[in-house]
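Comment thread on ticket #2218

A.B. wrote:
> Attaching the input chain for the structure job we discussed in standup.
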Amino acid sequence: MAEARRMAWGNWIRSAIRDLARAPEAQIPYLDGLRSLAILLVVNGHMSARFEDAYGSNRYAHFLLVRNGWIGVDLFFILSGFFIGGQLWKEIRRTGQICVGRFILRRGFRIWPLYFFTFLVVFFYFLCAGYGLTTRQFGWTDVVFLTNYVNHGIVMGSWSLCTEEQFYIVVPVALYLLAGRIHHLRDCRKWLWAALLTVPVLRGVLWVAETGHFFVHSPAAFATLYYPSITHCDGLIMGLLIANYWAASDKPGSRFASPWLLAAYSLGIAAVLYAAQGGVFGFFALALLFGSLAWLGLQRELKVFNGKIFYWISRLSFGMYLNHEYMCPVVARWIGALSHHAPFLLANPIVGNLAAVALVVVMSGAVSFVTFCLLEHPFLQMRKVYMGH
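C.D. wrote:
> Ran it. Output below, let me know if you need it in another format.
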């Protein structure tokens, strides 16, 4: 019996490793590269901020893409919108309808096992360590995916997952209700474009209500608009739009002669909007920028991210997103301890910062590999067995 269990575990692990080692034929390497870039931006930003808090500022931590590593979340939103949009548009084109429950359950097999495992680990750690669970009502908002609106929960970074989970409910329900009016995939675009343009208008109204002036700079107002899904979903809607064009085989880039020109126009518009009022138009500008980059890669089949490393990081990115923030303070302390034997780590803070980032990426990736093999992959296999591809 014990031998049979060991063999089952061995087969289980080998299956997960094979899944990581070989990308499916339908996999798009360029999107794997963008997902890898997204998680590295987020990890780099968080670790650099933690290192700066511990050992003072350094030039690397103030680089634009390091200081603003949070934009990796908006890139995640584009990709999530594209992937779920691909599933939804395919189902509408095939059946003319959306099965809301089936869609939500499919996403649940992907997200819930590792997410709730992380919640339980953090919950019991906080309980044993005597941390303030009561101040956040024992993390109940994590359980019901409301941390982007209430008390931020106990799972670090859960606000963005809550935004996506809310999106996974609202979008299929809306498409289910509109299914009778959808005769072609392009019929949805007017609704998507309207939603995409409404979000920055809503932010503008709330900004003026908060600050009293549209063009004032206010970090506090920006923070109030950053977490709620209703004011920070531009990337998800843009991802749905891209998936709609892609699924319908339309090529909006041809109107601009090439996807390169479309990307250039989008970059220019994004820069103007951000310069005009970054607090209101920043998320919209990022949606335009990252959306055009995604469309460019899809249209031109760019080979820049064809290395297997990007597929590996992409597959492990969900685990890395959930676990890396817990490792950042530990790594920061380790760098301080190591500096007694390797003084160069803090003699030049940039070296120490880069070493900390590299170490947390490796540690986070290693833990994510374990959780992928033991949690994510088994549930994905179950989904394949019970719900098909």
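A.B. wrote:
> Thanks. Noting for the ticket: Residues 27-69+307-389 form one domain.
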